[in-house]
From TrEMBL:
Ranges of residues in domain Major facilitator superfamily (MFS) profile: 14-470
The family this protein is said to belong to: Belongs to the major facilitator superfamily. Sugar transporter (TC 2.A.1.1) family.
Species in which this protein is naturally found: Betta splendens
GO cellular component, one term: plasma membrane
Gene name as annotated: slc2a2
Name of this chain's protein: Solute carrier family 2, facilitated glucose transporter member 2
Species classification: Eukaryota, Metazoa, Chordata, Craniata, Vertebrata
Length: 507
């Protein structure tokens, strides 16, 4: 009997419930963009730099005056902070993923942090009761802190409960939930839905809604068997969790795999973030994990989202916001394609295919932008390149790095590795968000040449350094990395690691 191919209702419920945290993350990422001008006007009014007369003029739909509030330096500063504080919160909390995950377990860890999302939703939803700029910035900071934790806990939990045969597909659901969340926020952000002067606080406040549903469902979800067996040393509870997740089957093989992983973990000191960075044993895995997260963010995908509306406007699209929503739909569809392909084609193959496609699209997009004022049809080359760029991103480089980290590391270093990868992702996201407007101003239509060069570097790295993990156990994946080491390094591996870990005061 194959113990790796059970899909049950309980497993589906557990994955769906965990992915609600990712949905909330995606919604929070996208929700702030659509109502920007409306929020800036309220900021200006609250700060006293936008007069009642101007507000009335705006309400009466004088389009020429609409952007004026957003041009005031104080409004610009507070608006920028509203956007950036989300990433700062995520950067800070990503270091706590391992601590929260091990403190009470994966399920209770997700349950504990949901109060942050509810608090953040209330702060933003009730922002008109006090100073909107202070309330929104506070809410975004708390929500960013929550999302930094959930973006680590969700892939960790799903990776630990997923049967080996479906680990890739189920792991990809984290990214799918993120892009669905972004799409929902784009649709709800339309001015005739919630992105208007009266309803925008509700639009922001709904960021916390998935946490309420997740709080109701989490008590029905089994704890991670790996956490129960390897961390808590409760074999029978781990067996019971496996039976709940996979149904009636012979759990001997799964228990044996966890037993070997536990024995290996027991030989070594507790692996913290600092000791993981210092240990040479995991250096190759850690390099691969961090580079894939850097590739995800420095691929230019966020630049596409920042730049897409202006490209669509130049192409003569009457309502660029609908074209941007079209990008969100493409985002979702091709993440579904990745879910279907990842356990067939393999992780490495999809990452390489995605990065190569994105690199080609970055070049064609540059050509389209350069000549669209000369040849009208070139604007459609730019538009097509945007859609294809997003498609290739979601096939591999978007979803795979999130769950691949959990596959590359055993139970001991896994929480620390996920924390480091998450921090790397949030930090690079923040850097791109803050620097892209300046890079765009400097390079103009050649901005995507820079991303094409970076993508080429990531393709070379992936080809030579990233192994295929499809269908492999944690032990087999570790063995792949050890093959690259010479015999002199392999022989004293355990002793070397223990020495390194003992040298770290944080171990």
């Amino acid at each position: 009997m194959d113990s790796g191919k059970q899909l049950t209702g309980t497993l589906a419920l557990a994955v769906f419930t965990a992915a609600l945290g990712s949905l909330q993350y995606g919604y929070s990422l996208g929700v702030i963009n659509a109502p920007q001008k409306v929020i800036e006007t309220h900021y200006g009014h609250s700060l006293g730099v936008w007069t009642e007369r101007a507000a009335v003029a705006l309400h009466n739909s004088t389009d020429r005056e609409a952007p004026e509030a957003g041009k005031h330096p104080a409004v610009v500063m507070y608006w920028s902070l509203s956007v950036a504080i989300f990433s700062i919160g995520g950067m800070l909390s990503s270091f706590l993923v391992g601590f929260i995950g091990d403190l009470r377990g994966r399920v209770k860890g997700m349950l504990m942090i949901n109060f942050l999302a509810v608090v953040a939703g209330l702060l933003m939803g009730l922002c008109k009761l006090w100073k909107p700029h202070i309330m929104v910035i506070s809410g975004r900071a708390v929500m960013g802190f929550y999302c930094g934790l959930t973006s680590g806990l969700v892939p960790m939990y799903i990776g630990e409960i997923a049967p080996k045969a479906y680990r890739g597909a189920l792991g990809t659901l984290h990214q799918l939930a993120i892009v669905v969340g972004i799409l929902i926020s784009q649709v709800l952000g339309l001015d005739f839905v919630l992105g208007n002067d009266a309803m925008w606080p509700l639009l922001l406040g709904l960021s916390g809604a998935p946490a309420i549903l997740q709080t109701l469902l989490l008590p029905l979800c089994p704890e991670s068997p790996r956490y129960l067996y390897i961390v808590l040393r409760k074999e029978q509870e781990a067996r019971n969790s496996l039976y709940r997740l996979k149904g009636a089957y012979d759990a001997t093989a799964d228990i044996e795999e966890m037993r070997r992983e536990k024995e290996e973990a027991d030989k070594k000191a507790k692996i913290s973030i600092l000791s993981l960075i210092c240990s040479p044993v995991y250096r190759r895995q850690l390099t691969v994990a961090l580079m894939l997260h850097l590739a995800q963010q420095f691929s230019g995908i966020n630049g596409i989202f920042y730049y897409s509306t202006s490209i669509f406007a130049l192409a003569g699209v009457a309502q660029p916001v609908y074209a941007t929503i079209g990008v969100g739909v493409i985002n979702t569809v091709f993440t579904l394609v990745s879910v279907a392909l990842v356990d067939r084609a393999g992780r490495r193959t999809l990452i390489l295919a995605g990065l190569t496609g994105m690199c080609c699209c970055a070049v064609t997009m540059t050509v389209g932008l350069k000549f669209q004022n000369v040849y009208a049809w070139m604007s459609y080359v730019s538009m097509s390149s945007i859609f294809l760029f997003v498609s290739f991103f979601e096939i591999g480089p978007g979803p795979i790095p999130w769950f691949l980290v959990a596959e590359l590391f055993s139970q001991g270093p896994r929480p620390a590795a996920i924390a480091l990868a998450g921090c790397c992702n949030w930090t690079s996201n923040f850097i791109i968000g803050m620097t892209f407007p300046y890079i765009q101003a400097l390079l103009d239509v050649y901005v995507f040449v820079l991303f094409a060069v970076l993508l080429l570097c990531f393709i070379v790295f992936t080809y030579f350094r990233v192994p295929e993990t499809k269908g492999k156990s944690i032990e087999e994946i570790a063995a792949v990395f050890q093959k690259g080491k010479n015999n002199l390094e392999e022989a004293p591996e355990d002793d070397t690691e223990l020495e390194q870990l003992k040298m770290s005061t944080d171990a």
